Amino acid sequence: MKFFRMLSLLTPMACLLAQTPAPSSQAPRPATPAPAGNAVPLTLRPGNAPVPTVAVPPDKIVLTVDEYKYTAAQMDRLMSQVKAGQTPAARRQFVETLVKMLVLAEEGHRRKLDESPAYRDQVALQTSNILAGMTYAEIGKETKPSDEDLRKYYDEHPKDYELLQARHILIRFQGSSLPVKPGQKDLTEAEALAKAQDIRKQLAAGGDFAGLAKENSDDTGSGANGGELGLFHHGQMVPSFETAAFALKDGEISDPVKSQFGYHIIQVEAHKVRTFEEAKPEISQRLAPQQTQKTLEAMAKKAAVDMDKDYFGPPTPALPPSPMPPATPPKP
After folding, report:
1. What is the DSSP letter of 68?
2. What is the pTM of this model?
3. What pLDDT tens digit does each residue of the chain (332 aa) get?
4. 3-class DSSP state of 169
5. Are 245 and 163 in contact (CB under 8 A)?
6. Domain-by-domain residue ranges, the chain?
7. What are the helix (H) ranges across the chain?
8. Are the CB atoms for 12 and 130 separated by under 8 Å?
9. Under CATH, what is the fold of the domain 154-273?
10. CB neighbours of 39 closer than 8 A, spacing ≥ 6?
C-alpha cells in the first residue's frame, strides 16, 4: 500500500517520462530530459532540492534502470518537486519507489500501452496541467493588489484588525471538556456560578486578579500565568466570551460569563488596533490570490470556448465567494 500511495505522487512525473516514445531495441534510451523550468503541476509545489551526503557532479548518472538514466541534477529536481525529503532514508525510499515506477513504465512500453489513445490523452492533459501551473505562478508574481484595493479592504474589515489583550479566571462545571483538577470537586453549574460570583466580589474589593487566577482558574495554561491570554482577535474565542470581552473597556472586569467550558471572569487590559501600514503586507498576501483569479477569469472570457450544452449540460451556477479567514494577530 505504501508503494501505491507514493506512486500517486509520482504520477505527474511518470507522465513526463512516458512522453518519450519507446525506442527500438537496437538503440538505448538517452538520459531522460529534464522538464523546462520548474515544470510542476498545480498539485505540487517545488521545495528545496535535497542535499546529497556526498558531493556529486550534477551531470553524473546516478540511477540506471534498464534503459532509463538519470543524472544527479535530474534527481534533485524530481525529489524537490514531490517533496521527497532531504534525509538519506527519504532519498532512498524515493529512489526505490521510482525504480518500481520505471519498471512498470518499461512493461507498459513492452505492451505498447504508450500507443493507445488513453495514454496520448493523459499525456496531453498532464502537459497542459504542468504548463498551466507554471503560468498561474508567473501571473501571481506579476499581479499585485493596488494600494487603493488594500486600503479599501482594511477600511471594510475593521474587526479583522481590532485586537484585545485580556486575562481571565475560569471556573469549570460538570460537563465541561476541561478535566477536573486532582483533588478538586466536580462542581455543579450552580456551584461554579456561586464560586465565580464570590471571586468577582473579591476583585471588586481590590483582590489581585493574577493571584486569584493562579489559585482558582481551571484554565491551567493561563492560570499559572495570572490568567494572561495575550493578544487575540475576533473569531478566536468562543462567541459568549468574545462578545463580553470586546464590550469591556480597558481595565474593566466582567461579571461571570458562561461558555461550554465553565464561567469566565474577564479583565480587559488593552484594546489595540493594527494600523494600515502594519496590516498592509498581510492584506496584500490575502488579496493576491483573488487578483490572480480575476486575471485568470478575464483570460478565460477572452478565449474562444465552445461547449456543447447537450453533452456538458447547462452552466454551473456561480457560488458566492468563500469568506476570508480572520487576520492573524502579531505575537504578544
Report:
1. E
2. 0.54
3. 333 333 344 444 443 333 333 333 333 333 333 333 332 222 223 334 444 456 889 999 999 998 889 999 998 888 888 877 778 888 889 899 999 999 999 999 999 999 999 999 999 999 999 999 999 989 988 888 899 999 999 999 999 999 999 999 999 999 998 999 998 999 999 999 999 999 999 999 999 999 999 999 999 999 999 999 999 999 999 999 999 999 999 999 999 999 999 999 999 999 999 999 999 999 998 898 888 998 899 999 999 988 888 888 888 886 665 555 555 544 43
4. strand
5. no
6. 2-135, 154-273
7. 2-18, 72-81, 88-110, 117-142, 147-156, 189-204, 209-216, 220-223, 239-247, 276-302, 309-312
8. yes
9. Chitinase A; domain 3 (3.10.50)
10. 16, 130, 131, 134
Q: How far apart are CA 129 and CA 39, in angstroms?
A: 10
Buried b (16+ CB within 10 A) or exposed e, 114-137: beeeebeeeeeebbebbeebbeeb
CA distance 85 to 92: 10
The closest of 91, 47, 99, 90 to 72, measured between CA atoms, is 91
Which sign does the torsion angle of CA 251, 256, 257, 260 carry? positive
